[in-house]
Amino acid sequence: MDISTARHVVEAIAHRVVAHADELTALDQAVGDGDHGLNMKRGFDTVLAELDMLAAGSVPGLFNGVGKTLVMRVGGASGPLYGTLFMQLGKSWPAAPDARSIAACCRAAVDAMAARGKSHAGQKTMLDVLLPAVAQLEAGTDLAQLRRLAGEWAQATVPMLAERGRASFLKERSIGHLDPGARSSQLMIEAVCDALEAR
Amino acid sequence: MNNGTMVEDSVLLLHAAGLHARPAVTLTKLAKTFSARVQIAAAATGPWVDAKSVVKVMGMKTPARTQLYVRAEGDDAAAAVAAVVKLVNDDFIGGPE
Amino acid sequence: MSNVGIVIVSHSPDVAKGAADMVRQMVGTGVPLAWTGGNPDGGLGTSVEGILGAIDAAWSEAGVAILVDLGGAETNSEMAIEMLPDERRSRVVICDAPVVEGAVMAATEAWGGSDLATVKHTAEELNERPE
């Protein structure tokens, strides 16, 4: 993956998240403090505004810069989480990227995010989309399959009991709602798949 | 150096809010200025709490118009007890800054 | 000043400032103290930049104890600590305590000249107390 493709992917992610900000806010109003959409929009609006500067160097530099921007601009709990995800992508980006090494890099990134949030699968979070996504990448997958599965994983959070974040204060009342973080993760995966398919 | 002599006294706690919040912090700060081990209690038989521990002092929830018992041991024990008694009598005004 | 510094981080700037006002009134000016609250747009939330600024404002060679309210405040504080220069990073801790009471307890302990571990422990005693 060269810098121009990486830039294209980042741009697609940013536009997708910003376009769905209202939906993310609505999901977060049901189970959280209603700011996930606003926070993510703030972070990714800044990424878009600074994209020329962020993409002026290397692929790892781009991911690291996106991560730092999200950390500083998103606020809320998802800033450090998505920020760590992108920063680790930058740190672990392979010198000679191929499907296998990119999958390993994504594994490192999601693991870093899990460590940051002190979370694991099954707690009704972004990880319930991102962890199976990484497993899928490691097993070798096609983009259409990944895109479809991402939707299923996000939907699968609906009946889950929240064990992390503001939603966990709701306990049983968190059941029956799609997790906003899972949705934003799904949107990002969709954007990546669409962007790569188009190249 | 612990000279083994326990100094004790008691004082009527008249402060309107009892030994709560700001008075507790002021008393703790004062106790910390002495090297002696300083303890306070709401009864002559205890239980005694460390007057230098703000969490423990605040946890006493001593209401107003009760007798506050003070004891200390160590080099400046007498001065410590006298200072705490004076602070309570002065309605917690004049503690260390 | 060699007393441990206290930083208050809340989702609400009003809460953070109010807690700092209470600490000043109850403990006095003998402890370095700073507060931060609100997201980068000034709405409810927390900001890594704000936290870094507060750590710097309350910096003491004896270290800094951070009091936080809910989830995001703690996670953003952890991020801020990781972004500190090497020589400061090991001297900043986050206390597992209620933000207002913890700040008062920590500041009282710091006023007495206690070290960072003792200040943190004192604040966290609040979460240990039996009801």
Largest sheet of chain C, in brief, is: 4 strands, parallel
Distance between the terminal alpha carbons of chain B, to the nearest Å? Answer: 27 Å
Task: Enumerate the strands of the largest sheet of chain C in spatial order, edge to edge or round the barrel.
Answer: 2-1-3-4
Instruction: Please identify which CATH superfamily of chain B we are dealing with.
Output: HPr-like
Going by helix content, strand content and strand pairing, the class of chain C is alpha/beta
CATH superfamily of chain C: Phosphotransferase system, mannose-type IIA component
> How many beta strands in the DSSP annotation of chain B?
4
CATH class of chain B: Alpha Beta
How far the N terminus sits from the C terminus of chain C, by CA atoms, comes to 36 Å
Percentage of residues in DSSP E strands of chain C: 15-25%
Report the total helices of chain C: 6
CATH architecture of chain B: 2-Layer Sandwich
Helical amount among residues of chain C, as a percent range? 40-55%
In CATH's first tier, which class of chain C applies? Alpha Beta
Strand coverage percent of chain B: 15-25%
Order of helices and strands of chain B: EHEEHEH
Uncertain ranges of chain C: none
Work out the largest interface and the residue count of each chain.
A-C, 20 and 17 residues
Mean pLDDT of chain C, rounded to whole units?
93
